Amino acid sequence: MGKFIEQSKQLLELVGGKSNIAAVSHCVTRMRFVLNDPSKADVPGIEKISGVKGTFTQAGQFQVIIGQEVQDFYNDFTAVSGLEGVSKDQVKKAAVQNQNQLQKIMSAIAEIFAPIIPALVVGGLILGFRNVIGDIDFGNGTIVSQSVFWAGVHSFLWLIGEAIFHMLPVGICWSITKKMGTTQILGIVLGCTLVSGQLLNAYGVAGAAADAIPKWDFGFAQVNMIGYQAQVIPAILAGFCLVFLERFFNKICPKVISMIVVPFFSLTLAVMASHFILGPIGWKIGSWISAGVHAGLTSSVNWLFAGVFGMFYAPLVITGLHHMTNAIDAQLVADFGGTILWPMIALSNIAQGSAVLGMIYLQRKNTKTQEVSIPACISCYLGVTEPAMFGVNVKYGFPFICAMIGSCIAAVISVGSGVMANSIGVGGIPGILSIQSKYMGIFALAMVVAIVIPFVLTLVVGKKKLTTEDLYGEIEESEADAPEIHSVIGGVDLTKVVAGTPIALEQVDDAVFSKKLMGDGIGIIPTEETVYAPADGVVKVTMDDSKHAIGLKLDNGAEALIHVGIDTVEMKGDGFNYLVEKEQRVKAGEPLLTFNKKLIAAAGKKDTVICVVVGGN
Predict the structure, then answer these.
(1) Is 27 a catalytic residue?
(2) Is 583 exposed, middle or buried (CB count within 10 Å of its CB: 0-12, 13-18, 19+)?
(3) For the chain, which end, N or C, has fewer CB atoms within 10 Å of the first or last residue's CB respectively?
């Protein structure tokens, strides 16, 4: 009879019974449940079960913290419940059922854009800098107009900016095929066909006469040769079309000829569908939006239009159709000597940046998120919103909505006061320099609204929505108040585990360990890649699928757990190698496992080695 049979029976009952469990798995420290109805879980009761150290919910998963004996607990639980465990990836997929439709859509978009975020962050900073030196008139002209050097810098940086934003469909198509498990190089090629130099650039379509647009002439039909630079919806539709076609042909095609038939027909048909059907649909949507904007600006209820446009301009950016507003702005400037539309765009950008600023404050000790959010906020305030929206706001959902609300209110103030810009300018805080002088005061007030409301709303909602792990390190600490490092725990010197710099356990970016739910210990920022036994003992815990952690029963009665990296379980063993086996006796200083720092970094993870001990002398 298992050690945790009784506890397993209690846990099964308290999570709502077998019928309430959609999936169950485990990692090195915790059980991971996907519950059909999370409200049925009796959290206080579960946390009173002997052997349970705590619970938390994240990304649709209800997680029960057990500790080093989680494998034994898990085995007894599956025996009692009659459930078969699944992989952690399958648990993540099952967890989608606990998300509403909007969350599912936001999650899908976030997953598609997650691999592209580093490029968007770089591109945002570059374009923001180009806006400052190339578009702002400091009284005697722009910086670019006054300096040959800065004119050269401005021109050179566009090489990178164009590659990131104009060629964005390439990255999107690649990311979709990567996410869906189909052939990634086909996704790259498909994306390239959407932005080919043979096509009329998307930014030039609005001002081109119908007879000036190049066409493919098939005799019985002609198709416009239009590019989809910087557009998101056509790229997403094209990417999923390719995925569908490749999966279809893989099912019906004999394996012996699949290498030839599947790529050829999948790619050719996907390109045809993208240019003949999906792309034109995207342009039609853009035309409808443009017509609606013009009608709204010239109507007697322009304040209502301002609220709607201010609210939904940010989602328009996600579609990639926002560049259509440039043609409207140009026409407004020509007809009325200025544009009422563009100030709202600048305010929307400011609002999105302010929501990110709220997230920066909420996660001010979460160094992992700061690496994305700080540069994203800077570029957003300089007029480039994609890094902020895709890297932060859409990822969490609620900051995006908070920014939309702030943008809506600011837009009503701007349009209701007749604020007009001389022309299109920097779409962020420096944009005030493009506002006609008599409107600068009221526009400054609208800017304050666009900063304060999203920031405050994000703080209020974020404190309720963000998980403990999202908010880890929320309380700021000075160097003098930093927790003391105790490296000898239970009579064991944990600094012998791996060469590197010790840090206090409270400073580790994993709430389960930093809150000492697994025991006391330290973290080590490693300089080498081999983990050693800190004392004599027996190997009791191994993770065969991920190989990122190991548990020892030491001769002095203590239990030691060594965990390499933060969230490295997701690497599925890539870069990790055990040097010992379960139940093997080891001596102090004997190598236990090796890991690859470069692979961990490439996976976007931290390589902090966590060492905790329970019991002992």
Answers:
(1) yes
(2) exposed
(3) N
